[in-house]
């Protein structure tokens, strides 16, 4: 530096002129080099990766605004100011006044950096950056480094009569003013970029447009916090989700990575299989000359045999590739925060040293106090940025995992559905996905904790020397204990999840059949079954809790044991080792830093163990075989047939025998095909095969155009009747009315309290079976598909209604004429009107042809008709009598008793009989009956709804789930305390108080110990000091273990009582509650909320008690040592209580809203062909009706 600054400008001077003085200052060379170059070095290092990032992420183009112009002009002026200094130096050299090289180098470097800043200002504008963090930090560093020269030049002007270097004095203050203005301008955002995706959201999240300063301080959230403090938040108050956090973004990202992972695994498996086929044949089986195997062949065989186990696709790798890069940004913040953490112990060392030096300048104390505050402030900013990235990653993980599981549940094979129960799938989406979200918060502790431990031990070594190795030995001895606990915990977690799956599966079955269960008074029997599984679950949970208590005791005592062993060895190995205040309390601050990673590491390991169990469960589920989406060819244009099936052979599961054999089917465009046969002959299986729901073993299927499917059991949504029919389509009045008329739904609208705007309950609970079936059929009609697959839609309605639906909707003159229809039916009276008939017998096509052709063949179909001949005669008389009645009422088609809702046993025979009621083919040509039918339909078709008639206001059947508002009532806490046990609760609090008292006693004793050493400078009463310190620490450890065990017992007891109360209440709840409450809402109480009580709440209670008593003990110690601090407690408490209430008001309500939003999920048991809605949104989609 002497070459740069010359002999007259030393880089550093004696400490007495800089530190040990009441007016400190830094040398001019130091100011011109280090302070001037530091911001420049930062910007040049940050620029290349930042420019590369901007090249890859173009957000649009921002018009040049006035602030942008001002920033650009001021940056150019800064360059001119710097080069004015440079040219002034050249001028001085020209005049013979030679200056040191530093006066040439610094203006040149700073000037070039200002040009770079100007370039970045404009490049960011062209790339759509509204707020620049890189430039903000640069201008902040520039202002910070310019403060010292700013003060120096003022002092110089103050103590000298004349300013010697007026040019540089003037240019510097120009420079300082412009840099401050640039910093202020950097705090404001630019306008949104042009040519970017226009955000039409009425309530967008301000985070996406927040500036760098607002992002770092979370200022963008202030408006929501104020709103939540003033009034309880509602769902409408919440901002819309950022697009990059939405499921439409994160779910496909994970699925892409998972598909790649599966493709790699399959390719590796194929290569392994190909390699295995090249294995030499065993001796005695070879057809080649020379049948003996050489040693090389045997070696090849052994090597190839190792490849027999194919590598499974790793779901973990997919998660890392999808969300790892974003999470690594949070990891970088965590690394920075860990390094800053160790600055405060060094500042504490300097502060203790300052208190010992009576002649030290006063500004030392202020500077150290400010540095400690600034370090803590910076550490807080960085730590919460780390948490923000972790929380967002966790949210994206949970969203994507739930989406992946839900999509998988819709497309797994029937064999996979046998192994993955509904309870397991619900738990995968609620519990297992939540575990990943919980893990990401502290996942970085896996590497951060060892790093903090290593750094703490390094500084302890500098402070206490080799004595630290005794503490290291204690930590190493605790590792096997923790490993053993982790292994056992993992085993218990697997077992617990199995019981949880079984419990949720049983609860799902109970809730789906709650009406039958209540009618037969089976509540107690099923309650005992649930409680039996719950007891097994709690037994495993108790073992896990006891292991957790043991782990908590070990790691809570670890920092103290490390400190005890270190101090004891330090004072005993050498008499000259004196434990003074500086060594003791700096070491204690390092031990306190050590406490967090040592406490968190077992919890993180436990969370990793739980997440690994969940990971394996999710990976196994996502690895299930899927239905082949290519099994049905939807783009076939080779033939004129709408549906073609050649040599089809299908099974429900590959290991099962085939359910359909040698199926050959060709359905011409616009024809009506009926599929008939006895019960169990494979009619519905044939429809499932056409939908791609079965495993295709042989043959080819092709379907031309879009497909609509009407299942036997109608699928009704919790929505209005109109919404159930429209199913997302645009409303067309004429088309809608025609569909209602064709499906005989028009008279029902007069009966329903709100007409077609009546809300339909979950599963169509307030509709009869026939009404549900007709709504399902009307939905299919309104969709206007090309091919209709109708799986016995007329079985749930009366015979005369079935005739109306066939004539007006399905039949040759119905609304679907010209469409291709495949009708599975038991009603033989409709068969003369169909184009072709397929007769199924034991999974095979027995006969196929027209009605007359099949009668002439006198085969299985003729036998089938002869069996029902008597019923046809009776039916003919009844139906003709109905048609001949001129006073046939309009609502007779709907005001009937649907057979599915009648008494099941008594009317089963009647239903089979009435299902056949219709007229034979000869009477269908009766002109009088046909004219009557047409007249009735025509009258209905032209009947206009009365515009004056207003539908009455109908109360909602399914009420939205409400959330509590305001504070959590004391009654809630009291209920949990009662569940734990009031006396046990008090005893737990007493134990935690004793634990904190022991910790206070240990610190007070250590303070006395250091005072002895300071007064006597000898090691008196060492054994007594060490012994008492050890006794207090051991007492603390025992109290921790006892309190943890007691808390675990209380929490398990509370979990049992609360679950029993919930279960008992639901079994005694009237049926009306289940009719108006979605099953998802109830299942959520038994899955997610019980999980919170079982596992999340105990750890929260543990954390609360530990923090409360720790804070209380800290205040007691400070007041005891510095009584004047008691004056500050009241205003500090007021501020903290206000901040806490301000924060909790919003946080609490957001938690409630989040809990409510979990409930309304579609039950997994309603899968049939719903996958077709989600996976094929194109015009050729197969859609469920």
Automatic annotation (TrEMBL):
GO MF: ABC-type glutathione S-conjugate transporter activity; ATP binding; ATP hydrolysis activity
SMART domains (UniProt xref): AAA
Domain named ABC transmembrane type-1: residues: 328-610, 986-1162
InterPro entries registered for this protein in UniProt: AAA+_ATPase (IPR003593), ABC1_TM_dom (IPR011527), ABC1_TM_sf (IPR036640), ABC_transporter-like_ATP-bd (IPR003439), ABC_transporter-like_CS (IPR017871), ABC_transporter_C-like (IPR050173), MRP (IPR005292), P-loop_NTPase (IPR027417)
Membrane topology: Multi-pass membrane protein
Pfam families: ABC_membrane, ABC_tran, TMD0_ABC
Subcellular localization, as worded in the UniProt entry: Cell membrane
Glycoprotein is among the record's keywords: no
GO CC terms in record: plasma membrane
Keywords tagged on the record: ATP-binding, Cell membrane, Membrane, Nucleotide-binding, Repeat, Translocase, Transmembrane, Transmembrane helix, Transport
Bilayer-spanning residue ranges: 34-53, 73-90, 102-121, 133-152, 172-188, 319-343, 363-383, 442-461, 467-487, 544-573, 983-1006, 1026-1048, 1115-1139
Residues covered by the ABC transporter domain: 643-867
Gene3D superfamilies xrefs: ABC transporter type 1, transmembrane domain, P-loop containing nucleotide triphosphate hydrolases
Enzyme Commission (EC) number: 7.6.2.3
Reactions catalysed according to its record: leukotriene C4(in) + ATP + H2O = leukotriene C4(out) + ADP + phosphate + H(+)
Positions of the UniProt region annotated as Disordered: 265-292
Assigned protein family: Belongs to the ABC transporter superfamily. ABCC family. Conjugate transporter (TC 3.A.1.208) subfamily.
Protein name: ABC-type glutathione-S-conjugate transporter
């Amino acid at each position: 530096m002497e070459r740069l600054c010359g002999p007259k400008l030393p880089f550093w001077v004696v400490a007495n002129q800089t530190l040990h003085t009441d007016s400190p200052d830094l040398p001019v060379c130091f100011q011109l080099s280090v302070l001037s170059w530091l911001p420049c070095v930062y910007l040049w290092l940050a620029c290349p990766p930042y420019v590369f990032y901007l090249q890859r992420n173009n957000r649009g183009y921002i018009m040049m605004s006035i602030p942008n112009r001002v920033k650009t002009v001021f940056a150019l002026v800064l360059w001119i100011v710097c080069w004015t200094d440079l040219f002034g130096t050249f001028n001085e050299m020209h005049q013979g006044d030679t200056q040191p090289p530093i006066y040439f180098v610094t203006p040149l470097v700073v000037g070039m950096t200002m040009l770079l800043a100007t370039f970045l200002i404009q490049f960011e504008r062209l790339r759509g950056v509204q707020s620049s963090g890189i430039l903000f930090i640069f201008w902040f560093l520039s202002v910070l480094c310019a403060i010292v020269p700013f003060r120096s030049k003022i002092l110089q002007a103050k103590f000298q009569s004349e300013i010697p270097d007026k040019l540089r004095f003037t240019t510097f203050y120009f420079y300082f003013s412009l840099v401050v203005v640039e910093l202020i301008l950097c705090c404001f955002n630019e306008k949104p970029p042009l040519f970017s995706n226009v955000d039409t959201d009425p309530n967008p999240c301000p985070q996406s447009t927040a500036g760098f300063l607002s992002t770092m301080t979370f200022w963008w959230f202030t408006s929501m916090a104020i709103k939540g403090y003033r009034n309880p938040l509602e769902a409408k108050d919440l901002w819309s989700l950022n697009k990059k956090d939405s499921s439409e973004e994160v779910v496909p990202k994970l699925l892409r990575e998972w598909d790649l992972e599966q493709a790699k695994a399959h390719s590796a498996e194929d290569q392994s299989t190909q390699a295995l086929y090249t294995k030499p044949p065993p001796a005695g089986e070879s057809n080649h000359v020379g049948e003996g195997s050489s040693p090389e062949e045997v070696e090849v065989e052994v090597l190839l045999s190792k490849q027999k186990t194919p590598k499974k696709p790793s779901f973990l790798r997919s998660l890392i590739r999808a969300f790892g890069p974003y999470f690594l940004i949070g990891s970088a913040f965590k690394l920075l925060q860990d390094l800053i953490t160790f600055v405060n112990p060094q500042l504490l060392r300097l502060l203790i040293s300052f208190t010992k030096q009576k002649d030290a300048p006063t500004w030392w104390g202020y500077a150290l106090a400010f540095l400690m505050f600034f370090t803590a402030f910076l550490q807080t900013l960085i730590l919460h940025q780390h948490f923000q990235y972790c929380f967002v990653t966790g949210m994206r993980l949970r969203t994507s995992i739930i989406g992946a599981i839900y999509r998988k549940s819709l497309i797994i094979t029937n064999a996979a559905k046998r192994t993955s129960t509904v309870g397991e799938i619900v738990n995968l989406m609620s519990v297992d996905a939540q575990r990943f979200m919980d893990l990401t918060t502290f996942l970085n502790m896996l590497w951060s904790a060892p790093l903090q431990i290593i750094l703490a031990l390094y500084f302890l070594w500098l402070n206490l020397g080799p004595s630290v190795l005794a503490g290291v030995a204690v930590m190493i001895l605790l590792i096997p204990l923790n490993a053993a606990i982790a292994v056992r915990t993992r085993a218990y977690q697997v077992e617990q999840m199995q019981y949880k799956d079984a419990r949720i599966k049983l609860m799902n079955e109970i809730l789906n059949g709650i009406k039958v269960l209540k009618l037969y008074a089976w509540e107690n029997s099923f309650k005992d079954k649930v409680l039996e599984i719950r007891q097994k679950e709690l037994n495993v949970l108790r073992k896990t809790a006891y292991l957790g208590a043991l782990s908590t005791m070990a790691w809570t005592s670890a920092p103290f044991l490390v400190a005890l062993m270190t101090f004891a060895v330090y004072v005993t190995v050498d008499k000259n080792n004196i434990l003074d205040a500086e060594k003791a309390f700096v070491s204690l601050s390092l031990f306190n830093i050590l406490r967090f990673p040592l406490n968190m590491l077992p919890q993180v390991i436990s969370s990793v163990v739980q997440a690994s169990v969940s990971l394996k469960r999710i990976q196994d589920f996502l690895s299930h075989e899927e239905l082949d989406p290519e099994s049905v060819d939807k783009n076939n244009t080779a033939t004129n047939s709408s549906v073609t099936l050649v040599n089809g052979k299908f099974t429900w599961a590959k290991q099962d025998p085939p359910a359909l054999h040698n199926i050959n089917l060709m359905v011409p465009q616009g024809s009506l095909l009926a599929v008939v046969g006895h019960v169990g002959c494979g009619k519905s299986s044939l429809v499932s095969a056409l939908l791609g729901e079965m495993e295709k073993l042989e043959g080819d299927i092709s379907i031309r155009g879009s497909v609509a499917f009407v299942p036997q059991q109608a699928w009704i949504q919790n929505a209005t009747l109109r919404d159930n029919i429209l199913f997302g389509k645009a409303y067309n009045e004429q088309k809608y009315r025609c569909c209602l008329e064709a499906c005989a739904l028009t008279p029902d609208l007069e009966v329903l309290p709100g007409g077609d705007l009546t809300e339909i309950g979950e599963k169509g609970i307030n509709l009869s079976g026939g009404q549900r079936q007709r709504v399902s059929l009307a939905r299919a009609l309104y969709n206007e598909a090309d091919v209709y697959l109708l799986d016995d839609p007329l079985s749930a309605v009366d015979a005369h209604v079935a005739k109306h639906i066939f004539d007006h909707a399905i039949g040759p003159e119905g609304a679907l004429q010209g469409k291709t229809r495949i009708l599975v039916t038991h009603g033989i009276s409709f068969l003369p009107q169909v184009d072709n008939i397929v007769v199924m017998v034991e999974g095979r096509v027995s006969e196929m042809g027209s009605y007359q052709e099949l009668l002439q063949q006198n085969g299985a179909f003729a036998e089938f008709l002869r069996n029902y001949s008597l019923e046809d005669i009776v039916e003919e008389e009844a139906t003709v009598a109905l048609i001949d009645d001129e006073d046939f009422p309009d609502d007779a088609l709907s005001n009937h008793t649907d057979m599915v809702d009648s008494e099941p046993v008594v009317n089963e025979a009647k239903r089979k009989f009435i299902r056949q009621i219709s007229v034979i083919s000869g009477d269908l040509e009766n002109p009088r009956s046909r004219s009557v039918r047409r007249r009735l339909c025509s009258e209905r078709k032209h009947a206009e709804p009365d515009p004056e008639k207003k539908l009455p206001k109908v109360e909602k059947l399914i009420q939205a789930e409400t959330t509590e508002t305001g504070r959590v009532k004391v009654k809630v806490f009291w209920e949990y305390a009662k569940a734990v046990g009031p006396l046990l609760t008090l005893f737990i609090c007493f134990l935690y108080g004793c634990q904190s008292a022991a910790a206070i006693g240990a610190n007070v004793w250590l303070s006395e110990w250091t005072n002895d050493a300071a007064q006597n400078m000898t090691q008196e009463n060492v054994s007594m000091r060490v012994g008492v310190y050890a006794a207090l620490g051991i007492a603390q450890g025992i109290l921790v273990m006892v309190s943890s065990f007691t808390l675990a017992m209380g929490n398990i007891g509370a979990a049992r009582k609360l679950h029993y109360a919930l279960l008992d209440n639901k079994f005694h709840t009237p049926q009306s509650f289940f009719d108006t409450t979605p099953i998802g809402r109830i299942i959520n109480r038994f899955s997610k909320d019980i999980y919170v009580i079982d596992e999340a709440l105990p750890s929260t209670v543990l954390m609360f008690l530990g923090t409360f008593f720790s804070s209380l003990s800290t205040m007691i110690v400070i007041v005891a040592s510095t009584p004047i601090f008691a004056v500050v407690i009241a205003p500090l408490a007021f501020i903290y209580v206000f901040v806490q209430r301000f924060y909790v008001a919003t946080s609490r309500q957001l938690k409630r809203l989040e809990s409510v939003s979990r409930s309304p999920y579609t039950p997994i048991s309603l899968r049939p062909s719903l996958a077709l809605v989600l996976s094929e949104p194109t015009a050729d989609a197969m859609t469920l009706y």
